[in-house]
Fold these 4 entries.
Entry 1:
Amino acid sequence: PASVRRTAQTQGDGRVDPADQLADHLKFARDFMDQEDLHTPINHGGGQSTNGGNLQVFSKEFFDAQMQVIIEERVPVYAAGLGNPGPWMAELRYNGTRVMAVVGAVRHAIQVAAIGLDAIVAQGHDAGGHNSPVGAMALIPQVVDAVGNIPVLGAGGIGDGRGVAAAMMLGAAGGWIGTAFLAAEESGIAQHQKQALVDGTEEGTVISRSVTGKPARIIRSKWTDAWEQADIQPLPMPYQGMVSGPVMAAAGAAHRADINPGFAGQGMGLIKSIRPAADILREIVETAEASLSRATYFI
């Protein structure tokens, strides 16, 4: 929007408005791209494709439009990842949609439980992407205790059936697994990102605000390292996405796993190969059943 470039102003608490810091951060990104010989990809229409860099992509209107599509298409299962789905519950319920919410704190679980969800996902610090400051081992049982009869799915670092069994022993009804399925043949991420998951270890991720502006667990890269060494801090969401979007798009087009390897949880080290999702699921179920059966030996 035209209002992004203006004389620097401070907010009520004395902080500089993120919009007024944007120019310096965009220069940081351009300098990084020059250093890494990255070039903004050209889309099919002949223009530049940035995969971000537009505040409208992060606007309330954009998210409202997404929700409208979910309702119009009568999506059977919907999980809210960064907010309370309460305003949409009446329409979702009318469609018969099963509704879940991902939470990272007990207080958030209590808030969303009040709107009548079908399940709550308790996602700990081990998880990829935006997560919680609390580890899954501590978070899951506390959320279970707080929400009564609502089923809870444990998430964060769960990469195989043993993790699912462990979550169930903590009171969860099951596991919520993301990273393991990113390495599936059917996954929509780029091939170089899938290979980064196979090559990664449990120490290969970092919590960084460098991509979205919110703390998120991502595979360590030259981009995350650059921000750790920089004398400026990432901007809050949605502004940081305007900074990182062109970089991530260019790195993706160039298949640069050293710059855009993607998000991943600490269970990444359990991934040994790229294979069909059906094989991954089958092994998870079999391993979970075997793990739960062994639990009786300790009684």
Note: The chain has eleven helices and eight strands.
Entry 2:
Amino acid sequence: MTLSFPPITLPGDLKVGEAIGYPGGYDFASNGAVMQCRYTDWLLPHPVSASLSVVNAAATGMTFNANGLSMPVYATPYPGVGFAMMAGDPSQPLRVITHTGTTLVDTKHNKPTAWTLQGRVYLVATGPIASGPISASTVGRYVLSNVNIEGPGHASINFGDTVILPPQKPTCRVSTPSISMPLGQVPSRDFKDIGSHAGSVSRNITLDCGGGNGGILDVWITVTDQTEPGNRSDQLSLTRTSTARGVALQLLNGAQLISYGPDSSGVGNPNQWQVGSTANGTLTITLTSRYVKTASTIKPGTANGLASFTLSYR
């Protein structure tokens, strides 16, 4: 009998001792008889018992409680993932299954009998869990006592292959695809030496993020000078229609000057920087614009700049 688990996505807030995957556990049942007795009728009723035990799994010392039962948790070959099992004959209540064996049916009969089985398995977090595949394994052995048995003499309970997936990260949508940062009129006397700055205005780029299940999304950004796309400095070029001279624009995130890079979301893009990390919710990127003096003499006039931003999600 093989238990098939669908792919399991880990929640981001999973704690040791909690169920992994479906919190109500995974049911299993024999399709017909799990074992079949074939013999000539006995003249007198004969005592026969059926039992199920956990095999090939070490006890973790933990217990898992469900349906009023306290079940020992056993390790799987996959680090951080354990399991607990309850089972029974369909005519009997479910019972805790241990490595020492649990009697499910103890009866007398004198005719051939089909033995059936049903149960439930809980996957349990026993420690840190990394995403990846879980290989198939045999975890239970069903046996009959006091009868002559052909073949292997038992029926096996197996876990099928499955995969552990990392917590689902959110996806983000930019709700402010374009922002305007008017600095207004700034007198040239407000500048001192070359490199001094004047004027200031701040605006926010806002990301709305959702659809995650405990995962954290890292957000990176590259700002590109649209007038001089090859610009890799921290000074934004004036547009070609600007008439002022001796000044440039600067963008800051907090106190950090922003340098410009190619219009690309690729990992390691020049002058790409991390905005932060986010779960479901709103992520705000605050940018501040200002003028910077680039020459000893400033020629008054219009001084506009144009930049684009490209986001990268990891």
Note: The chain has a mean pLDDT of 92.
Entry 3:
Amino acid sequence: MKNLIAALGLVDWEAQFVSGLGHPMFGLQVQRRCVDGVDIRAAIQVSDCQAVLVSDATPRINQDLIAELADKNIKLIAITSDVDHWQDLGASHCIELDSNNPLSALKQISELMSDEPQPVEPESVPKGLLIAVAGFGGACGRTMAVKEIGWQLSKLGSKTCLVDADTYGPSLDQELGFEPNQNGLLELCRSIERKNVSVQTHFDLLPEVSENLSLVAGLPRISRWTDLRVSTLRELWRKSRETFDVVVADVGAVLELDHSLMHETSLPRRHAASLTALEAAAVTFICARADNVGITRLVRGYLEFHELFANSEVHVLLWGVVNDAQSKDVRAAVSRHTGIESIFETSYDFEITRKALQHGSFVSKLDSKNVIAKEFEAIATMLSKKLEQQNKTPLQLKPKRRLLKRAA
């Protein structure tokens, strides 16, 4: 006996159809009747079912719900007069509605449900390395770190992409001298949502900063964060790692746990871009100013949100170190209070950073012998070795997705 959830909406044949599904010859049982997509999402949390029936009249059905059903290995069967619409949403089981005899779909549903369930082949983990650059309370030097790490990795031969995922103040394209209307985060997410075959084309058409270095610009207006959805962003990080050897993401400096991500994944969330990037990142750099204010923000933020970094290798990047005594003190403070041993530091050279910003370029490109360039070269070498080691390991299987939880 197979269990179903029926959510056919306000159609005049709904009651008769549900009654027909219960006939013993079909071996089906309608476990629950739902009114819309929100009701379906609640029902699948408490019901053991193998399929959900919907129609063109079922409200609030979107790609996120269909993806959630697929993750739970629950079939979505759409009885529809517009098959293309449902296929665009991602539904793989569609039955054309016969308006003269809607009950004719009963037999097709029975045949779909009687098929032996096919084992779900686990997806291989993309070979690309995702690096998240984050911080707390401003995170001095975050965007510059993204630029310099990306430049150095591209010079080492890695196909690299810079992604501006800061939903509060994106500036990466501006710092590199690009127009704001380039292919960016919003356009890629829209293409993924439409399940458009041109997603790869969008990646291929990304503006090239230099050889082996591409740019995904941030939101054209910060108010457009409402167009970014959790499931789409997760798919974006996966596809970007399939396309590039290394993806360096600026995830902003305002990190906050959004508890609703645990349940309402279909709704837009202000921190979705940052949280999904941290969730997928293999390496995370936390930037902070090397003074009492910067270190305090770093320690407090890390202790409060340490679970965000549970799946990645965490490094600290301290800015504005002026002498050995200061270096020793701040390193000791960070290690003592956070337990993080991998700490990089860099000095602050106002003139060279001003020149790089003025020319829309990189410190490492303008002066490869500068101390800042040498420091980022060392970081890039370390990351390049990690990428080599990662690609030498046997092909891994995609781990089960873990929803973000509240830090203790």
Note: Confidence is low (pLDDT under 50) at residues 395-408.
Entry 4:
Amino acid sequence: MLKKFNQVLHYNPRLSISNNQQRTQTMKDNQQYYGTISRLLHWSMAAAFAVMLFTAAMWNFNEDYYSLMGLHKSVGFLLMILIVVRVIWAALNVKNRPHGNLIVKLGHLGLYVLMIAVPMVGLIRQYGSARGSLKVFGVEVMGAAPEKIEWMTQIGNMAHGNLAWLLFALAAGHIVMAIVHQVKGEKIINRMAGSRK
């Protein structure tokens, strides 16, 4: 109680503003580290990708695991929203983000393109299949075509899975290269997970 009273007596508005500015700065990206928002988006997406990979691998291994399709679609839809938010946030912070060489930039561009293309193709197939509405954890978010649209299902069947595996391969390469650079002492992982001091 006495400590709080002393804090009130010795209140320093400049210090308060400084603390608020510091919190704001940690939310944003800078040229050394990614900020809190980028980190939350990155690791949320990483967790969602793990679920997507697990469910897809399971039913490719054993068709009995097609019961995981509902979870796959629900997490995939949430992942698509996260991707859109992340692309917008990255565009807003493009001048402040840690710099990378051309190969790194092309790798990130490939990841972003595939992260948008894979769920979009999945949505096209879902709608064109006319097999029912898309439900995300039980909540209907998109209706279905009144009857099957052949070209939509063909695009989905041809592209969704292949693009998804390509995306997983790129993501695996991204992880491997991050570890390699970290071992070399470049502290790449610290940009997204380490202290920002």
Note: The chain has one domain: 35-95+104-193.
